[in-house]
Structures are given as structure tokens and as C-alpha cells.
Amino acid sequence: MIPYNYSFLSLEEKNQLRHHLRQLVTQNGEGALHALEIATETSIRAVQNQAKQMVQGSLKSVAKQKIDDQTEALVELVGDQQVHYRFFIGFKLVLTDQEWKLSTYWDELKSAWQDFIYGVNHQLMSDFVSYPKQDLLRYGKMEKLLESKISRRFNMRKLDKNDLGYLLNYLYGQNTAVYANYQYHLPKQHRKKDTLIKRYDLLKPTYCEIEEKQRYLKLTNEDTNQTCYVVYLPMSEVIDGLDTHYSEIFYYQQEQFDFPISTSMNIEIVGNKKALATVRNKKKELKDQDQHAYQSDNETSTTIVEALNSVDELETDLTGSKEAMYKLSYVVRVMWSVLF
Prior knowledge:
Number of helices: 11
Radius of gyration: 26 Å
Shape: globular
Distance between the termini: 35 Å
């Protein structure tokens, strides 16, 4: 997502943004979304040195001296490293039934045979990953359709191999490179019916030693002589007040913490029919517990009564609105590095 200044949006503009975010989730139908916010650090001195290289003219020496004075003032005020947050949204594309019916029996037979060949090559050789071009074309069409819908409401761009490589490096503790200068080399071999990528090139950004401790992960990378300690903090409850204004988690957590953090919000979309079936099964289970308490001459607990009321209300809402349900996972990631 291309960044913009949220602080100066009016209340009406914030309402519009919230409405667009809600539509972004609901329009996906079925599948899943993954919103990722990562903190990247940039060196003020590096940025200022780039500015010095662009200086021209007869007063070049004076301009460079002014830039050096400005650099020292900024470093003294905010430190050498400045934190910038970047936002990524991933969509899980699910092929529709109509697209599935268009494929012939012969195509399905060939696809099954290709999966078998790929499985054999993976077990015996494990050198290449093969992607059928037919599947790439089908998902490419869905990608373009989704991109056209998103571009109406948000200013975004598609991720390239450098973005994906940087994200993998970041998650595995290799965050020494500057985001703007990062380059990820991913050679491909295009054939008539498929595309081959070396498995080593896919796994290369994740190369590090991972030790799983009781409350944290220890990531050791010999190439960068760096050890990272990572803690994942899942959020168990979300208060009701988050629906009100001035309670935007993604925005205000940047203001509250004086150290960089990353946030992962995973949304699994449950269709209306599946959601109704889940709610009705839960309702039946609660009624069985209520009936069992009645037959045992015991009073039904307050928890079961409140749960029954909530399930009835939820079933009514789902039946009337025909909307989906959403399973949300919200995790905060804190990482600190040590050179060895």
C-alpha cells in the first residue's frame, strides 16, 4: 500500500477509509486475507549522503556543509536510525465453480499426471519447482480482476520479487539491507508448458539457524554475524470500543511504542452457508447442555444462557444479512538483534 498521511484526514475521510476497508474484506467472497505491517529502519546519514551526491553548481561546497550540519542536528534530535512502517496486503485467490467447469476431463487428467510427475521429481531430485503455465494464466486473470477492484479505492502496487525476498529476509532476522536498495535475484527457466525455478533460490532468503525457546525464537545467521531474538504476542480479545473513532490499532500503535514492532492480521473468510451451519451446530450443542441440566434437576448456568442468546442473535443476523463471518488472528512481533 502506497503510504499517505493519515493524521490530517477529516472525520468524514476516515469514515470513508473504514468503509473501503470493510468492502475490501467483503468483496473477496471466500478465501483469506493477510494484512502485514513491518517496521523498516533507514539511516538518516545514508539519506543525507544521497542528497549530497545530487548537489551541483558553484555553491556545491557550501550546500554540502549545510547538509552535514542538518544531518548532525537530526541525528542529535531523533537518532541515526529512523523507523518507517510499510503495509502489505495478501489475498488468497480461490478459483470459482464456473472456471472449474470450463476445464475438460482431458485437462484434469493431464493436470493429475503433471502433479504425479512433479511429486516424483520432488522426492527424487528436489532441485526445481515447476509451475504449469495453464494455472498461471488462470490465476493471472483472477489477479487482474482483483487488482481492478482494489485500484478504485486504494493506491497500491503489486509486489515484485524484491518485495517478497525482503519480507522473507525480514521474517528470518536478516534485516540489515535498506529496503529501497534491496535486490533479490530469482532466475527462472521458461519452457513451453511450464516455468522452472530452482528450489535453492526460493529457500535462500530463509537460511538461518532457528532455536525455539519457551517464550521466544533465536535466529542465528552466520553470513551477517547477527543473532536475533523474536517474540510473538497474540491478541486474545478485542474490546467493543474499537468500532469507534480514534481507536485505530495499526495507526496508534506506531505512536505508543518507542521501539519498532510488526503486526500480522490474518482474516479467514467463512461463507454465509458455512457460517450458518457452524452457528446452528453450536446452538444445538448448547441446547443439549441445557436439556441435560434440566433432566439432572440442575439449573442451567448463566454462561450457557448468555451463549444461547448470543447464538440466537447471530443466527438472526446471518440469516437476514446473508453476510459472511470472519476468523481473525492478530499477532504483534517484537525483534531485537545482537552482533557476535
